[in-house]
Design brief:
- By secondary structure, the protein is an alpha+beta fold.
- The protein folds into 2 domains: 3-76, Zinc/RING finger domain, C3HC4 (zinc finger) (Herpes Virus-1, 2-Layer Sandwich), CATH 3.30.40; 101-256, Apoptosis, Tumor Necrosis Factor Receptor Associated Protein 2, Chain A (Sandwich).
- The chain contains 5 helices and 17 strands.
- Strands 6, 8, 10, 11, 12, 15 and 16 form a 7-stranded mixed β-sheet that branches. Strands 9-17-13-14 form a 4-stranded antiparallel β-sheet, with no helix packed on it.
- The longest helix has 14 residues, at 3-16.
- Residues 19-54 form the E3 ubiquitin-protein ligase Sina-like RING finger domain.
- Pfam families: Sina_RING, Sina_ZnF.
- One of its GO terms (cellular component) is cytoplasm.
- GO terms for molecular function: ubiquitin conjugating enzyme binding; ubiquitin protein ligase activity; zinc ion binding.
- This is E3 ubiquitin-protein ligase Sina-like RING finger domain-containing protein.
């Protein structure tokens, strides 16, 4: 079977097993009606009480054989309609697909309402947030924060190092400066990413905070000391120059993810 035949076969499987609600291959866990039409359980729970194809009732049991087949059969990426040509199993690819949707996280006070693919977000950042996109040279970077400027409550920067892309989130909250970093992946991770955030005065280190980069979709990391730092703004004001600006130094390292045998 050549590549064209394989692609046509996968397209046929996807068409046959397409969920009539989300319009992509039905995802386990699944539900089927009395006539055998399959639907994602999450779609049924949210939107429908009867089969949208034949208006018949759903069975109380799951189609386990169909679920098992779909878990081992390769499939098209659900973002194929946007241009992705990847073929993979278990949806492993889609979490890292460059055609997946995202909201822009760059800018000040979360004012940017841009939405699009991760691929297009890279270009959007260069075009609309150029001053907030930073290439880390030799795994090192300087970023300045205007502590005296009270017009901002959040400010996010993009960091690029060794072809890895991150977003540095910076917030003011009740007299504290909070920072954490999220990784925007384009492939399955092979490394854990570590950053050290350093504040100096007269070239001497005053604060030094090691943190880990969190995954893009990871939640509730702001209060996790492994991923975030909290510094009293009053302490940083002691480090500020005559313009009320504090310079932060960022160092990057990485460690390999252990492989399981």
């Amino acid at each position: 079977m050549d590549d064209t035949e394989l692609l046509n076969l996968i397209k046929s499987i996807d068409d046959i097993t397409k969920c009539p609600i989300c319009l992509v291959r039905a995802q386990p866990p699944m539900t089927a009606c009395v006539n055998g039409h399959a639907i994602c359980t999450k779609c049924r729970n949210v939107q429908v009480t009867e089969c949208p194809l034949c208006m018949q009732e759903f069975l109380t049991t799951r189609p386990h054989v169909l679920e098992q087949l779909l878990e081992v059969l390769p499939g098209l990426c659900k973002y194929a309609i946007k241009g992705c040509t990847a073929i993979s199993r278990f949806n492993r690819h889609e979490r890292f697909c460059k055609y997946r949707e995202m909201r822009c996280m760059l800018g000040q006070n979360n004012l940017c309402d841009w939405r699009g693919t991760v691929k297009d977000w890279l270009a959007h950042g260069e075009d609309k947030h150029f001053f907030l996109t930073n290439q880390m040279t030799d795994k090192f970077l300087e970023i300045s924060h205007s502590i005296s400027d009270l017009s901002w409550t959040s400010k996010n920067f993009r960091l690029t190092v060794e072809s890895n892309v991150f977003v540095l989130h910076t917030k003011r909250l009740e007299g504290e400066l909070i920072q954490y970093i999220k990784h925007i992946p384009f492939h399955a991770p092979t490394h854990l990413h570590h950053f050290t955030l350093i504040f100096k005065k007269n070239q001497e280190v005053v604060y030094k905070f090691p943190i880990k980069a969190a995954n893009q979709n990871e939640k509730e990391i702001q209060d996790n000391s492994l991923y975030s730092l909290w510094v009293p703004i009053a302490n940083l004001q002691l480090l500020a120059n005559e313009y009320g600006t504090v310079t932060m130094f960022i160092e990057y390292t990485k460690t390999s993810i252990p492989t399981t045998k």
